[in-house]
Each structure stands twice: as C-alpha cells, then as structure tokens.
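Throughout our pipeline, every protein is held as a single compact record rather than as scattered files. Such a record has a labelled line for the sequence and another for the backbone structure tokens. The remainder of this section carries one protein's record, kept here as part of the documentation:
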Amino acid sequence: MMMALLLVTKLLGFLKLRIIAQLFGATHELDIFWAAFTIPDTLFMIIVAGSLNAAIIPLLSSVFHKEGEEKLNKFFINLMIVISTIIVFIALILLIFAPQLTNFLIRSDVSQSILNFSNRITQEDFKLFVDLTRIMMLSPVLLGISTIITGYLQTRREFFVTSLAPLMYNLAMVFGPFIFVVGFKMGVTGVAVCAVLGSLLHFVVQIPTLKKYLTQKVVLTWASIKRAVNDLAIWKGLKLAVPKMISTIGEQVNIVINTLISFSLVAGALSAYKFALSLYLFPVNIVGGAFAQSVLPELSAKSEQPKEFKEVLNKTVQQALFLVLPMVSIMLVLRLPIVRLTFGVGEFDWRATILTSWCLVFLSLAILGQTLSQIILRAFYALKKTWKPLVAVGIGILVNILFAFLLTNFFSHYYDWRPILQQVVEQVATANGNGVVSVIKSFFSDLFVWCTTRGTSDMAVGGLSTSLSIASFIELLLLAYLLNKEVKVITFGETIKPMLKKLLNGILMAVGMYLVFRLFDFKLDTTRTFSIIILTIITSLYGLLSYWLGSKVFGIEEINYFEEKVKNIWTKITDKIRR
C-alpha cells in the first residue's frame, strides 16, 4: 500500500517537474530557484528529517510499547514544542539575514577564488535569490511540524495518511503553477508560493487522524516550552539524533557545494542536474524509502534478538535489491527517451534533454548504493548506534566533494580527451612493447590537467552525477562493514551470493535491452513522441521478461515471493469484480 501511494506521489512529482520544465526549461532563472530552495531545504533536513528516522521513531515506539499511550502522547507534545521552537527560531534568523547569507555564498572572496562564477550572478539574480529564500522559509517550518506528526502516526501504524501527506504536497506543486505562474505571471516566485502551499497541505491532511489519538492541544506558551525543555526524554532523543544531524549537515554541505559548482558551469546546468536527480530518486524513494520506512519499527523490535534481526535485515535487503535492479537497467538503457517523455515539452529543448540524460546515466549507477544504504542505516538506528554510521557518511561526503571538483573539470574537456584517449589506446595496441611507458605517462599527465583545469564543454555537469555515484558505493561498503562489526548480519551464503546472482541477472537484462533498443531505434522515427513511447514500451517489456526468466534460471528466491503477492492481489481484484 505504501509503495502504491509512493508510486502515485512520485508520478505526481514527475508531473510537477514536467510542468516546471515546460514553463522554464533548463534556464538560468530556474537555476536561481533551485539554488534558493537549498537554504530552507537544508534547515528542514538537518533539524527534522535528519533526526526523525535516527531517533524520534525508535524513541516514540519504545515509549509506546514500554510506557503506554498516555506517556507517548505527553512525550510527543513536548517533542513538538521543542522542535517547533527550534525550527521557528532558526527560520526567523535565516529570513532576517538572507541577504548577508546570500552575499557570503555568492560573492565572498573564498567562493570567487575557488569557483569564479560572479559573471553569471547579476544584481537582479541576487534580489530574486533573497526573495525566493524568504518565501520558501515558511516551508521548513510547516514541513517540520508535519514530519513530527508523521513520526507519531507511524508509531501508531497509520501508514496510509502519512504516505498521503507528500502526495498532497505534490498535488499543490502540480496545479499551483497554472494559477501562480501562468495565471498571475509570477515566474519562479509562483513556484516558491506553491512549495509553501504544498507544505501547508502536507500538515493539514494529517490533522484529522492525529485528533483521533490526541485530544490535548499543542500550544506554544512560555510555560509549555519550559515544561518541554525540562523533559529528559526529549534530550535523550536529541542526543541520539546528534550524529545523524551532523551527517545531514555534511550531506547538505554536499548539496550546497554542488549547487555552487553548477554556477561555474553553463547556464541551465543546475536545472539539468536537478531534473536528472528527480528521476534517480524515483526508484530510491519508491523501493528504498518504502522498505526502509516499514522495516525500522520491525528492526527496532528485534534489536535484542540477533538471529531474528539478521533475518529481517537480509530479507529486506534482498527484496529491495530484487525490485530496484530492473529499474536501474531500464533507466540506464532508456535514459534519453525517459527524459524526453518526462520533461520534453515547452521550453525544455533538445540541449536540456541531452544534459539531463547525460547526468542520469551516471546517477543510475548510484541507485543501488543509495537504496541499500537507506536500509542499512535503519539497522544502525534500530540498534541505537547512531554515531557509528557517521564515519561512513562523512567519508562519502568528502569523496563526493573531491570528485565533484575533479570530475566537473574532467568532463568539461569532453571534446578534447575522447580523441586523445582513443589515440592512446591505438598507440598502446600498435606499440608492441616499445614506447608504451611514455604513452601512458603522457596520458596521465593529460589526465591531471583535465581534472584540475576548467574547459568549455557542457558535459561538465556529468561530474556532479559521477561523484555522487562513487560516493554512494564507498558509503555503502563502509556502512556494511561497520554494521557487520556491530552485529554479524552479512554472510556470503545469505547476503553476498544472492546479491551476485541478482546483479548478474540485472546486467544480462541491461545488455539484452540495449540490443533491442538499438534494433528498434533504427526502424522507428524517434523524432515523433508516439515512436518514442513504442520504443520505450517494447524495450522495457523485453527487459522485464528477461529479468523474470533469468530469476527463474538462477533460482532467485524473491521471484516466488513476489509472484505470490501478485497472484493474491489479482485474486482480490477478480473477486471484487465478480461481486
């Protein structure tokens, strides 16, 4: 049910982005919007989203099961008051000092000495950035309060309404632009207003269900704040959340740095990266998010039973991997038609399509790492070992920052290094041992230059995607290693061997899809939308069929589980039709 709602939510999310792409394309004005969105989003991620999964849900669950409903409600009210006070206070500070913060990020000597993008930031851009930041600062306040409610309701096993909340947010983002951008001619400011409206709906839709369990009103007064601050359980929860908050700060630093780097690239680079990022996050959130969200309460309940804990974690990891691999293959092979069908309308031209699909090809590889990392992180949270994963997350952040700088430079020489690389390969192949060393030395010398100087190719934006992929896999490996040191959950027979079979099946699916794609690409007129749809459907159906057959041949257990699920759903549907 959660995956179904998440699927609808994400489809609406794509529709939202398609509308934005139609209205603005991959343009400088939209780049300013995405950059301004980073500050309020950072506030929300650090204060609320960063702590919710790490500490709040396990604590709420623990209080509920050990101390009962009355204690749970008291703890929740105090938590709401403390988090609301903190987030409102910080939001006010950022709202007041938005010009100074913007000036530091964009015009400081440090930023200019590293990135040198002042030639792309005009005085009008500066004002728009500040205005957008101030409008959207209301969003983290509303979403922050709403997300705490989400944690409380999930503890009560109310997953439907908590999955409905982000759907309402996306509905506002889908229909709002027609009112504020098209109707009132507000430009990207209209999109910012839609974000605030969506945050309000995210909050409001959960209130009726909350009232079912909570009769006492949450009121911000000096007495209630003092009472909440004196609640030791709150500080215990915040203490557990500190490591996750720190790692979230690091992750947001990643986003800020990637945003700043994008302003040193061509106009529209940030928008292309953001569009590709939304496609990449589709399988990550649909599969990884749903599994991670639903498994956390179960892992928390089994945290003192190592055998059961191991079984639950391995089962979840294998099921998530089984579902996400075909999505990766489809996205990798069909990146161009997917981008064209999703965003290719209005102002979103062919150049924007190429840039977005170029980012997507590298981001596709990060889907595996990010999906599994979400689940393994929940295992740490369930064990209340929130400091340990900070090491892996921190290293992943540093890797991403380093490679974002090196690889954007590298890909900015895209039209220079490809022929040189081809020449090196030919020279090595024909050298017959003579002069190979000098050729290789020359190549590495050129490679150093490519990675440390900026060229002119639009393809530089691909460096942001590649660095994220590299960092996600390094983070996953470190998280798995640290978790296995804590609890022996990863073994060759139960974890590695089933993974290898699934990965081989996914690779064979991708190779077969590529051959089918190339075959029909020559036969169909892909300048027409109908032909692109036919090509996408045929290639995807072939891929899914080959993945299913491969699962049977390799004896992948999950195929039987999901076949049974599909049969049960089909039986229920047919029974209802007959009635």
In short: Residues 115 and 261 are 6 Å apart (CA to CA). The two ends are 22 Å apart (CA to CA). Residues 34-264 form one domain.
